[in-house]
Design goal:
- This protein is mainly alpha-helical and 457 residues long.
- The relative contact order is 0.17.
- The longest helix is centred in the N-terminal third of the chain and has 37 residues, at 89-125.
- Helix content is 68%, strand content 0%.
């Protein structure tokens, strides 16, 4: 794995240089990990066979297993890091209720729409298709490559060997749709007067086009919480993540030894728990404040970049070709759902800066949070709309729902229960919309007119 990671690191460097020297890649904001993964895919044994990635004893590429390891490491970071005191539900609803209900609806609604689409359309059209096929749409779009590795790993263990390739393909399509579609939405919005914080002729910063940040735009990546005379702060944070992963690995081994099998709890879910336990232990010892959440986020982002690159590289082209039509159909569903949510609900549920907030959610629900932030910075360069602050507060509650879906829904689907989670999630989606209208209120102001709180800026 170390040697393969070195090879992928070389491809990441080459991909980032390509993004710098090929202006088209910068103009469409294609993420470097996707370029690196594509280079690995083309250079691997499926096409040119010139990149010497390792093979397992059965002849398969070893890198296909790496995303499953990386996602457990990534999930271990979720609850590591000191956080301010979490507000209660009433405070969240009162202060950022529109953001909470809109983003929660976008998350659960995509899962519900995909499962119902699979039941009502894909199943009758393609009788031989695995019942979990449609589930990989929200796993890839709303979740991203990390969620695909988590959910796909469960489905593979249940016998569907094509799950990861299907999911990684949809996650890659989602990232591209998020970036390209998001920039198209920006162009339409600036012409129609929907944006509030940039002029119609606004030019993107050069750093967003090239991928390299000049001295005047650079920001700190975190705080130094331990003395470098004792231990480097990055080594401290990486060691905590690896410790949480080791705890998860041996906890899983212990459960298997005691029960003779795993009761269905995947390694990434155990890693979430061990990360939380480790952080709580440090809190009890009075040392929790020495785990910097921003630095831990950088560690998670680094893991995510490698995860995406390895995931794209491990896509099996033959499986994609065999399922081209259903993949196209569910991809169109994901894009249509995200655009419908953006246009029909975003401008009604969100009290101000509806375009900026909806654009962020569009990027998040087709790609990852990083894509949402990148799109937001295009229309809100100085982050004055409050979108990220509100989302951060609202996501405290949303994250628990998302983790519950990731852990429970695949287990239900592999046991043949598809309609039940689909209907429950559809009910939650409808409840979000109704509660938002009842508790927060809807806003019927035309999309190009100012709303309360926008005049000042």
């Amino acid at each position: 794995m170390l040697l393969d990671t070195c090879l992928m690191s070389l491809l990441l460097v080459l991909a980032h240089l390509l993004r710098y020297y090929v202006p088209l890649l910068g103009r469409i904001h294609l993420p470097t990990p996707i370029i690196a993964g594509a280079l690995a895919l083309v250079g691997g044994p499926q096409v040119l066979d010139v990149v010497p990635f390792s093979h397992q004893a059965d002849g398969k590429l070893a890198l296909a297993a790496y995303p499953g390891v990386l996602v457990a490491l990534l999930f271990a970071t979720l609850f590591l890091g000191a956080r301010p005191r979490r507000p209660g539900t009433r405070v969240v609803v009162r202060e950022v209720g529109d953001t909470f209900f809109y983003n929660l609806a976008s998350e659960v609604g995509q899962y519900a729409a995909a499962l119902l689409f699979g039941l009502l359309l894909l199943g009758p059209l393609f009788p031989g298709l695995n019942p979990a096929f449609a589930l990989m749409l929200p796993a890839g779009f709303a979740g991203g490559h990390g969620t695909v590795a988590a959910i796909g790993g469960v489905l593979e263990q249940a016998g569907w060997t094509e799950a990861l390739t299907v999911g990684y393909t949809l996650a890659t399509v989602g990232l591209v749709a998020g970036i390209v579609g998001g920039m198209l939405l920006v162009n339409v919005a600036t012409r129609r007067g929907w944006t509030r914080l940039i002029p119609p002729d606004y030019d993107l910063p050069r750093s967003m086009k090239t991928g390299f940040v000049p001295p005047g735009e650079r920001k700190s990546t975190g705080q130094e919480t331990v003395s470098p005379t004792a231990l480097d702060t990055l080594a401290w944070h990486v060691a905590l993540v690896l410790t949480a992963f080791a705890m998860a690995y041996y906890a899983d081994a212990l459960v298997r030894w005691l029960l003779g099998r795993n009761p269905g709890l995947p390694l990434f879910a155990i890693a979430i728990l061990t990360g939380a336990v480790l952080q709580k232990t440090l809190d009890i010892l009075g040392l929790g404040g020495y785990v910097d959440r921003t630095t831990m986020g950088r560690v998670g982002s680094t893991l995510s970049d490698y995860l995406v690159a390895f995931a794209v590289a491990s896509i099996e082209i033959a499986i994609v070709a065999r399922h081209a039509v259903p993949l196209l159909l569910v991809s169109l569903l994901g894009i249509a759902f995200s655009l419908s949510l953006f246009w029909f609900l975003g401008r009604r549920m969100l009290h101000n800066y509806w375009f900026e907030r909806s654009l962020f959610t569009y990027g998040w629900n087709t790609g990852v949070v990083g894509i949402g932030i990148a799109l937001l910075r295009v229309v809100d360069p100085r982050l004055r709309s409050g979108t990220l602050q509100d989302f951060g507060l609202a996501y405290v509650g949303i994250s628990f729902v998302a983790i519950t879906i990731i852990v429970t829904v695949p287990q239900l689907v592999v046991r043949g229960y598809v309609a039940l989670p689909a209907l429950v999630l559809a009910a939650v989606f409808a409840a979000c919309i109704l509660l938002s209208r009842y508790l927060i209120g809807w806003y019927l102001t035309p999309p190009d007119q100012l709303r309360e709180g926008e005049q000042e800026l």
